[in-house]
Design a protein that fits this description.
This protein is α+β, with helices and mostly antiparallel strands. The protein has 7 helices and 9 strands; from the N terminus they run βββββαααααβαββαβ. The strands form 2 sheets. Strands 1-2-3-5-4 form a 5-stranded mixed β-barrel.
């Protein structure tokens, strides 16, 4: 079972993950992990620089990200390139590939726990998530933040929804964004230090179940606040509330303060 249903053959221009099977003087034979087919990485497509020893660039057993140049299904031939893959493309492809493997693993584990074929879980849950959220992993990330109701609403059977939700919450890391800013706080009263501390602590009142606030001293009178949340909209809203709490409290205590958002 494959979580993301691939066509039988890749298309020219596609990025693929491969395992180097054999290295020769004129190139390398690579098994494409996502398609189960072998392709050829010609020596001229290994590097833009001069190659003295091809094994300095590729070796047997190595995982590589390659770009498909040509495909001939009749001859069962696939030409590949390593030198045409940018660093950014390589990083993004590896990330997507790892996410697909993790999603596939969770669907298989769900099938094992329920004692049903993996294909059934993919058909009734994986394919539904892929259609609804673009990729199965994106759907599982959203599920990790919510509950099985999310799956039930899009037609996933209850028994599958219950197990998959439990696994998603246990195994999927919810991505977080972080924003921060700097307070400048002063209070010349005898207990000014305590007043500043108490004012900063009011920022914590803006915390939410899906967001965290961190405060620390840079060097008086400067204090940093960091907000972590699932998205920028939530983080910005919490930061605004926290800043409002702090500045109102220090002003009420007879001090003064300002805030500067950092990019």
């Amino acid at each position: 079972m494959s979580v993301v249903k691939k066509p039988e053959w890749p298309e020219p221009g596609d990025l693929v993950i491969g395992t180097v099977k054999k290295v020769t003087e004129y190139g390398a034979y690579v098994m494409l992990d996502e398609y189960g087919k072998e392709g050829l990485l010609h020596r001229s497509e290994v590097s833009s620089s001069w190659i003295r020893n091809i094994r300095n660039f590729v070796r047997e057993g190595q995982k590589v990200v390659l770009k498909v140049l040509r495909v001939d299904p009749e001859k069962r031939h696939i030409d590949l390139s390593l030198r045409r893959v940018t660093k950014r493309e390589r990083i993004e492809k590896i990330l997507i590939w790892k996410q697909e493997r993790k999603a596939e693993g969770l669907l298989k584990t769900t099938a094992e726990k329920l004692g049903i074929p993996p294909e059934e879980v993919y058909e009734k849950a994986g394919a539904v998530l892929e259609k609804e959220f673009g990729t199965v992993y994106s759907g599982l990330q959203k599920l990790a933040r919510e509950d099985e109701t999310m799956l039930l609403k899009i037609g996933v059977p209850k028994k599958i929804a219950a197990v998959l939700t439990e696994l998603a919450k246990e195994k999927i890391r919810v991505p977080m964004v972080k924003i921060k800013g700097i307070f400048e706080l002063e209070c010349k009263k005898p207990d000014g230090v305590n007043q500043i501390r108490d004012a900063l602590l009011t920022a914590k009142k803006a915390e939410a179940p899906d967001a965290k606030i961190r405060l620390y001293t840079i060097a008086a009178p400067k204090y940093c606040i960091e907000v972590q949340a699932e998205d920028y909209k939530t983080a910005e809203a919490i930061l605004r509330k926290a800043v409002d709490n702090v500045l109102k409290t220090i002003t009420k205590a007879g001090g003064q303060g300002s805030f500067k958002r950092e990019k």
